[in-house]
Design goal:
Low-confidence stretches: 263-274
Strand content: 5-15%
Largest sheet: 5 strands, parallel
Number of strands: 5
Oligomer: single chain
Shape: extended
Order of helices and strands: HHHHHHEHEHHEHEHEHH
Helix content: 55-70%
Number of helices: 13
Mean pLDDT: 89
Structural class: alpha/beta
Bound molecules: adenosine-5'-diphosphate, magnesium ion
Length: 274
Amino acid sequence: MSRIEVDTARLPLLLGELRLPAISRLWPEIAERSDREGWPAARLLATLAELETAERGRRRIERHLAEARLPPDKTLDGFDFAQVPMLSRARVAALASGDAWLNKGANLLLFGPPGSGKTHISAAIGRALVENGYRVLFARTTDLVQRLQTARQALTLEAAIARLDRYDLLMLDDLSYVRKDQAETSVLFELISSRYERRSILITANQPFAEWNTVFPDPAMTIAAIDRLVHHAVVIEMNVQSYRQRSATLRKGRTAAAAHSAKPQPETVADDAT
Ligand code: ADP
Ligand code: MG
């Protein structure tokens, strides 16, 4: 056995025990390069430490992306800002960096008719935030309300709400689909109150505030919820036509145009005849 083999025989075990998978995987190659290029020992150590830290950061972001339950494939790159003139790319980029609003627990409220792109832009902002080191959770509001109601029945509502504190941003999609007559929606109010001025909430809704009386058990609670949500909030109204309808209309237009140009044109026939 060579000297090096003797020295390193226990390395895989030691590195495994220390939970340093990147170093464990990469050290032979880096050590070889270090020997070849005559690196000082300190440089070798620093290089290995950097590699491990970088990989740890990447794995953390992967974990946070998985736990965020974001709708897949909705990215900022895939969002056509020209369709939503009231929403500038720069403004969204600022929101996606997070610092200015998440650190003070401010909220983001997005209103607009179905198909205006609320879910898409929210998911895209959420993804960018995770990539910038924040933790987010995306949920259909009805699902989350149901989970909280179950927790309340089990007398664990407080703990369930506290567990959501680990997320810098809670994204509640389609708040206005929640109906107070379906079950007890005061859990939603308790969630909003608990996060007030501490942890951010993003809400999308088809209906503006005036219609929210259908969501909360009574008008006083509706007013109190809205009051807390808007106190520190960015409100964006996306009053544009449904993207789905627009692209369907465009497709139909193109199909019609294609069908039209495929038909023999009277002029052409006339030309041929001459
Ligand atoms: P909303 O949540 O407002 O009902 P969605 O975000 O679900 O609307 O948008 C409906 C569909 O149209 C989705 O597939 C979404 O990706 C797409 N879409 C909406 N707006 C845009 C846009 N500006 N650019 C690209 N795709 C869009
Ligand atoms: Mg939506």
